């Protein structure tokens, strides 16, 4: 009996232990569930905070993008609005300078030009600084040849240097490769800025430019540029903030030395962008040495190519164009002063058949009512801007199978990407305000085409081919167009190389082949261009055909599009 009682007692204790374990397990389970619930609540809270933060970040990003776009748009408007009246000032001053003036009047015109150029420089500094600040400045890597660069800078700055009674000396390390790799435009910009700065604060002294090879490897050279002057020097306390924007020394703020205080800041930003460093060594009253070091890639020296000499007219103003320009020009610009300047510039170039309108809508109407040889189109105009007007004109030309009239953008907005926008809209070229008489002459001559054959296709030839059937699924016209598309772009590139290299015989042969192939398909306007290049080449004047090269691919593409419409 006692054994039974012992077993029962053991069983009872076992049951109690199991019950206790079950109770503790349930308590632990409850604690875990509570902890899980708390963690889940925290996770939900975190998700909500994350969603809120993401929304805030997205809103901030959109706000930043909108602010950047607004700033870019504002800068573009400012650039256009400032450069347009400057075009009037500089354009009129240039025309005035070409007229018969007394010495006193010539001096007055020079003062006007210098003041306008100074204002243009200040505007350009502000635009460059804005682009650098916004991270929109992009390097253009290409060949850097220091010797021609310094010759160009010397020619450009010599008048101002002489005016201040200074001398300019250049010493270039002979160990530096003649051809390097970098952004030649930005290097030139920094050098010009530093030399102009040195000249501004120096009178009857010496400005020395030294270019030194610091170190080199097989693929690159580290070059040090130094611009030393014997001018007024810079106080030690001013040197610490010299490269900050809008900062000027006490002397620099005086009326004698004009500027924005952005020049050195821009130089530092450009040098940093090119992977270099910049600094200054100076003592007040003892002159200054501004220096910057840049790593530049090494390149083999370019091969010299023979170029046939081209005879140029002795007096460009008496004979501004190689061929007389006899077709009317349409000028679209909403600024009355600018219209007047361009009209006078065109008159000086011998072009008197000019119609003008003040917005894009009027430009489209004028295009529909009259045949023009060229349109000079301002970009920013009321009612309809120049880009939209160009798109409408191009659409109508395609519908009517007419060749594209040259449209030249004239704009004060010279921000990065503006030229690309113009070309995408269908414009042929770009000229930034303010522009000189020579710049205007050059762009008109470049796009000066004969208007005898204004139709893209000779429809009588096209119709004859279209009526002929071909064995298989394609018509004969489709087959010939496919062959023309396969061969022509490559041949145009070959022709371009022959013209640029001055190979008269090869250019004449290639142009004749392209002309014949185009005529056989009834491609009228394109064949006219090839015929003109052939004629230039046959008479030993192939270099005169260069302005026609840019028109070839657009003319070829228009012809293909026109033939497609006939096939459909």
UniProtKB/TrEMBL annotation:
<keyword id="KW-0597">Phosphoprotein</keyword>
<keyword id="KW-1003">Cell membrane</keyword>
<dbReference type="InterPro" id="IPR003661">
    <property type="entry name" value="HisK_dim/P_dom"/>
</dbReference>
<dbReference type="InterPro" id="IPR004358">
    <property type="entry name" value="Sig_transdc_His_kin-like_C"/>
</dbReference>
<keyword id="KW-0175">Coiled coil</keyword>
<dbReference type="InterPro" id="IPR005467">
    <property type="entry name" value="His_kinase_dom"/>
</dbReference>
<feature type="domain" description="Response regulatory">
    <location>
        <begin position="328"/>
        <end position="448"/>
    </location>
</feature>
<keyword id="KW-0902">Two-component regulatory system</keyword>
<feature type="domain" description="Histidine kinase">
    <location>
        <begin position="77"/>
        <end position="298"/>
    </location>
</feature>
<keyword id="KW-0418">Kinase</keyword>
<dbReference type="InterPro" id="IPR036890">
    <property type="entry name" value="HATPase_C_sf"/>
</dbReference>
<dbReference type="InterPro" id="IPR001789">
    <property type="entry name" value="Sig_transdc_resp-reg_receiver"/>
</dbReference>
<dbReference type="InterPro" id="IPR036641">
    <property type="entry name" value="HPT_dom_sf"/>
</dbReference>
<keyword id="KW-0808">Transferase</keyword>
<dbReference type="GO" id="GO:0005524">
    <property type="term" value="F:ATP binding"/>
</dbReference>
<keyword id="KW-0547">Nucleotide-binding</keyword>
<dbReference type="Pfam" id="PF01627">
    <property type="entry name" value="Hpt"/>
</dbReference>
<dbReference type="GO" id="GO:0009927">
    <property type="term" value="F:histidine phosphotransfer kinase activity"/>
</dbReference>
<feature type="domain" description="HPt">
    <location>
        <begin position="473"/>
        <end position="566"/>
    </location>
</feature>
<dbReference type="InterPro" id="IPR008207">
    <property type="entry name" value="Sig_transdc_His_kin_Hpt_dom"/>
</dbReference>
<dbReference type="InterPro" id="IPR003594">
    <property type="entry name" value="HATPase_dom"/>
</dbReference>
<dbReference type="Pfam" id="PF00512">
    <property type="entry name" value="HisKA"/>
</dbReference>
<feature type="modified residue" description="4-aspartylphosphate">
    <location>
        <position position="378"/>
    </location>
</feature>
<dbReference type="Pfam" id="PF00072">
    <property type="entry name" value="Response_reg"/>
</dbReference>
<keyword id="KW-1133">Transmembrane helix</keyword>
<keyword id="KW-0997">Cell inner membrane</keyword>
<dbReference type="GO" id="GO:0005886">
    <property type="term" value="C:plasma membrane"/>
</dbReference>
<comment type="similarity">
    <text>In the N-terminal section; belongs to the phytochrome family.</text>
</comment>
<dbReference type="GO" id="GO:0000155">
    <property type="term" value="F:phosphorelay sensor kinase activity"/>
</dbReference>
<dbReference type="InterPro" id="IPR036097">
    <property type="entry name" value="HisK_dim/P_sf"/>
</dbReference>
<dbReference type="InterPro" id="IPR011006">
    <property type="entry name" value="CheY-like_superfamily"/>
</dbReference>
<keyword id="KW-0472">Membrane</keyword>
<dbReference type="Pfam" id="PF02518">
    <property type="entry name" value="HATPase_c"/>
</dbReference>
<keyword id="KW-0812">Transmembrane</keyword>
<feature type="coiled-coil region">
    <location>
        <begin position="1"/>
        <end position="35"/>
    </location>
</feature>
<feature type="modified residue" description="Phosphohistidine">
    <location>
        <position position="512"/>
    </location>
</feature>
<keyword id="KW-0067">ATP-binding</keyword>
<protein>
    <recommendedName>
        <fullName>Circadian input-output histidine kinase CikA</fullName>
        <ecNumber>2.7.13.3</ecNumber>
    </recommendedName>
</protein>
């Amino acid at each position: 009996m006692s054994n039974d009682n012992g077993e029962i007692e053991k069983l009872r204790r076992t049951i109690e232990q199991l019950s206790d374990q079950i109770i503790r397990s349930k308590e632990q389970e409850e604690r875990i569930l509570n902890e899980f619930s708390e963690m889940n609540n925290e996770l939900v809270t975190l998700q909500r905070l994350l969603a809120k933060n993401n929304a805030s970040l997205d809103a901030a990003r959109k706000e930043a993008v909108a602010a950047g776009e607004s700033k870019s748009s504002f800068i573009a408007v400012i650039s256009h609005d400032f450069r347009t009246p400057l075009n009037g000032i500089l354009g009129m001053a240039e025309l005035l300078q070409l007229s018969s003036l007394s010495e006193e009047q010539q001096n007055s015109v020079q003062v006007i030009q210098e003041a306008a150029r100074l204002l243009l420089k200040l505007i350009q500094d502000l635009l460059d600084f804005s682009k650098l600040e916004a991270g929109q400045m992009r390097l253009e890597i290409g060949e850097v040849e220091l010797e021609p660069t310094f010759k160009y800078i010397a020619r450009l700055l010599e008048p101002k240097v002489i005016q201040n009674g200074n001398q300019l000396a250049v010493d270039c390390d002979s160990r530096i490769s003649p051809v390097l790799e970098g952004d030649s435009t930005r290097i030139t910009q920094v050098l010009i800025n530093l030399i102009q700065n040195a000249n501004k604060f120096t009178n009857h002294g010496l400005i020395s430019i030294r270019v030194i090879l610091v170190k080199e490897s097989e693929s690159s050279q580290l070059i040090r540029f130094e611009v030393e002057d014997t001018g007024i020097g810079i106080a030690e306390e001013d040197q610490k903030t010299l490269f900050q924007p809008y900062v000027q020394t006490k002397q620099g703020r005086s009326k004698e030395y004009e500027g924005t205080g952005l020049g050195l800041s821009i130089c530092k930003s450009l040098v940093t962008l090119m992977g270099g460093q910049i600094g200054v060594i100076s003592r007040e009253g003892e002159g200054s040495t501004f220096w910057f070091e840049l790593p530049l890639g090494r390149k083999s020296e370019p091969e010299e190519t023979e170029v046939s000499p081209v005879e140029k007219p002795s007096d460009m103003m008496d004979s501004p164009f190689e061929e007389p320009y006899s077709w009317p020009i349409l000028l679209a610009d909403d600024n009355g002063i600018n219209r007047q300047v361009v009209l006078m510039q065109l008159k000086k170039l011998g072009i008197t058949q000019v119609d003008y309108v003040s917005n894009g809508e009027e430009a489209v109407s004028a295009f529909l009512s009259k045949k023009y040889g060229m349109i000079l189109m301002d970009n920013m105009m009321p009612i309809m801007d120049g880009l939209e007007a160009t798109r409408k004109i191009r659409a109508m030309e395609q519908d009517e199978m007419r060749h594209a009239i040259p449209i030249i953008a004239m704009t004060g907005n010279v921000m990065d990407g503006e030229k690309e926008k113009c070309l995408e809209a269908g414009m042929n070229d770009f000229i930034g305000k303010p522009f000189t008489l020579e710049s205007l002459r050059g762009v008109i001559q470049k796009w000066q085409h004969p208007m005898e054959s204004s139709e893209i296709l000779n429809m009588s030839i096209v119709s004859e081919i279209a009526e002929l059937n071909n064995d298989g699924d394609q018509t004969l016209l489709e087959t010939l167009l496919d062959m023309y598309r396969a061969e022509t772009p490559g041949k145009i590139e070959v022709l371009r190389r022959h013209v640029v290299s001055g190979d008269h015989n090869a250019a004449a042969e290639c142009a004749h082949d392209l002309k014949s192939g185009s005529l056989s398909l009834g491609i009228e306007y394109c064949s006219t261009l090839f015929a003109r290049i052939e004629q230039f080449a046959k008479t030993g004047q192939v270099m005169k055909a260069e302005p026609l090269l840019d028109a070839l691919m657009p003319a070829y593409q228009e012809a293909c599009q026109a033939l497609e419409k006939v096939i459909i």
